[in-house]
Design brief:
CATH topology of the largest domain: Immunoglobulin-like
Shape: globular
Number of helices: 5
Structural class: mainly beta
CATH class of the largest domain: Mainly Beta
Strand order of the largest sheet: 1-12-20-19-14-17
Largest sheet: 6 strands, mixed
CATH superfamily of the largest domain: Cupredoxins -  blue copper proteins
Radius of gyration: 21 Å
CATH architecture of the largest domain: Sandwich
Helix content: under 10%
Length: 464
Amino acid sequence: MPGWNRRRLLKTALGLPVVFRGLPRLRGAEPGPIGGLVELDLEAKQQWLDVAGGNAYLYAFNGQVPGPIVEARPGDRIRIRFRNGLSEPTNLHYHGLHIPPTGNADNSFLMIPPGESLTYEFTLPANHPAGTFWYHPHLHQSAARQVSRGLAGLFLVRGELDAIPEIASAQEYSLVLQDFDLDSRGVPREPNMMQRMQGREGDLITMNGLSSPAIPIRKDGQIRLRLLNASSSRFYRLRIEEHTFHQIASDGGALPVPLELAELLLVPGERAEVIVEGSRAPDTYRLVNLPYNRGGMGMMGGGRLPVDTLATLVYEGKAEQSVRLPERLAPVETLPPPAAVRTFVLGQGMGMGMMGGGMNFTINGRTFRADRVDTRVRLGSVEDWEFVNPATMDHPMHIHTNPFQVVNRDGSAGPAWKDVVLVRAGSRVRVRTRFQDFTGKAMYHCHILDHEDLGMMGVVEIVE
């Protein structure tokens, strides 16, 4: 591991945990009145940073990896004065937020040149769900490089889930998972074409920029973890030794009831909120990333991969009183039957890609073009989109602007709002969505960002 200093090595040798570091917030833990203004300055810049106890020359928001937490409530006005301090163009995508895909809101077609600034401004709808969302660059053919070098930050919307007493009483931690491929100096390596085809991964895995931090929990208490997979390609198959996850929220907000899980799979771009109960004997327990084979050319290796320790759950003290999880969390609307059903076939093959050749990734046989509309839908309509994946790689598919519900085998939808869905190799998945509130052009794509950059992205236009 590059750039390790003596202090970090000493802690590792002694078996001492690295102290957990929370992420700085651009707004306090208790946001102001509904309808307030969230105003901040944000700069993307490449610089030397302390990451996992070593020096790394990464892209950072406001000098930190991951970037600061933005926090707001439904009805708030958001004003972000963004400066591009990189040597290449970039932009911002507000992943999962239900805001306009046009103007200076969540417009992924914008391009901000090096050294220039843009003020992003939008209002969260008054009925916007509470949840864990995030921001990251989304410039075509640059998204994988810029995200894999560190550009990612959480965007939290506080609301109905946070008001449930049993949830509010839990100590909350926001955890951002990222991986980096660095040389011995701490400089990011550029992937070769084979690595881009597979989707780049790095050997250094961090949580909030740390290597294996300690997360405190009290005996008979509980903690709330907001988890974000901000890696450009890596899947995280999470498990805590001798503990279970009680999932309370997915990408688009609260679940109707807590869901108990032995392990949790997070694909790129996906989020989850879980409660972990301090129900075991006081000790230390590892939060691990188990092997996962996402397919391809045999590079992932399935069971040959090591088990990575991402963090350590450390028991400290005893809770004053034990709190039980609520039986119900928040109702999830059931969408009506669709007015239309569309099919999107995910493909890959050799073609005229970047640098004149290489692998192309396609949707319905076409690679992305910003000047072409691939799908046109009516405002207010409900549709089913079926993603068909005949290939040998898994593809996590993301739709901008409007969340969706996964359709079950019996044709019903639910019971959660999401904006990323895993379409495993050789399978098909149907989702149901309603195009509401906003017109304009948005995108849908694979969230293995190399696959997006190599063409697996389309344009949907929402019209009156």
